[in-house]
């Protein structure tokens, strides 16, 4: 499932910032991709809707790269952090 989550997260970021998905890797940071704090907040909301999860504020604040976002989603899904 991680590959699928990674692909979806990369797709969300690529569409939001109009980037080539092939240039986005798990190691890509939000800063490298040109995401500011508003973009990151919007990305978290989109992730919550897409994956039907709730991302706690402390988890959202710690996510700084594509890989961290993917790992966070995987953990929340595994822990059953479904949206109310």
The averaged pLDDT comes out at 91
Instruction: Give the low-confidence spans.
Output: none
Q: What is the rounded Rg?
A: 12 Å
**Class based on secondary structure composition and strand pairing:** mainly alpha
Helix count from the secondary structure assignment: 5
Describe, in plain words, how this protein is organized in 3D.
The chain has one domain: Non-ribosomal Peptide Synthetase Peptidyl Carrier Protein, Chain A (Orthogonal Bundle), CATH 1.10.1200. It has five helices and no strands. The chain has helices at 2-17, 30-33, 37-51, 57-62, 66-79. Helix 1 (2-17) crosses helix 3 and helix 1 (2-17) crosses helix 5 (66-79). The longest helix is centred in the N-terminal third of the chain and has 16 residues, at 2-17.
Write the layout of secondary structure elements.
Elements (H helix, E strand, L loop, with lengths): L1 H16 L12 H4 L3 H15 L5 H6 L3 H14 L5
Helix pairs in contact: 1-3, 1-5
Q: Which key features would you list for this structure?
A:
84 residues; 0% strand; mainly alpha; Non-ribosomal Peptide Synthetase Peptidyl Carrier Protein, Chain A
Can you describe this structure in just a few lines?
With about 80 residues, the protein is mainly alpha-helical. It is about 65% helix and about 0% strand.
């Amino acid at each position: 499932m991680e590959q699928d989550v990674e692909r979806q997260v990369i797709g969300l970021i690529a569409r939001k910032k109009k980037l080539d998905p092939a240039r986005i890797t798990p190691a890509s940071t939000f800063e490298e991709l040109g995401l500011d704090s508003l973009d990151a907040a919007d990305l978290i909301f989109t992730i919550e809707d897409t994956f039907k999860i709730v991302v706690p504020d402390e988890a959202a604040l710690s996510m700084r790269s594509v890989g961290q976002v993917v790992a966070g989603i995987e953990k929340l899904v595994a822990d059953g952090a479904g949206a109310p």
